[in-house]
């Protein structure tokens, strides 16, 4: 009977999964990270404006 063992991969294994295999994949990953960073910054600014009562989102 086979045993099923659950394990958490270590950091090296996670990095191996996440590292791009070629230049195009690396560029695509960098672009996605940049877009995500800009979106998070935009959402943070929007939330701050709404919290301060300066809601010009719908103008």
Low-confidence stretches: none
State the helix count: 2
Proportion of strand residues: under 5%
Helix content: 55-70%
Radius of gyration: 20 Å
Shape: flat
The overall strand count is: 0
Mean pLDDT: 79
Rounded to the nearest angstrom, the distance between the terminal CA atoms is 65 Å
| Class by SSE composition | mainly alpha
Oligomer: single chain
What is the succession of H and E elements? HH
Biggest sheet architecture: none
Question: Helices, strands, pairings?
Answer:
Elements: H1 11-18, H2 23-52
Describe this structure in words.
There is one protein chain. With 59 residues, the protein is an all-alpha fold. Helix content is 64%, strand content 0%. It is built from 2 helices and no strands. It has helices at 11-18, 23-52. The N and C termini lie far apart (65 Å). The mean pLDDT is 79.
Task: Give a short synopsis of this structure.
The protein is mainly alpha-helical. Helices cover 64% and strands 0% of the residues.
Descriptors for this entry?
flat; 59 residues; 64% helix; mainly alpha; single chain
């Amino acid at each position: 009977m086979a045993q099923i063992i659950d394990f958490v991969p270590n950091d090296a294994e996670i990095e191996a999964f996440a590292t791009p295999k070629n230049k195009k994949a690396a560029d695509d990953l960098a672009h996605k990270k940049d877009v995500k960073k800009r979106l998070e910054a935009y959402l943070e600014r929007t939330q701050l404006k709404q919290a301060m009562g300066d809601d010009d989102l719908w103008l």
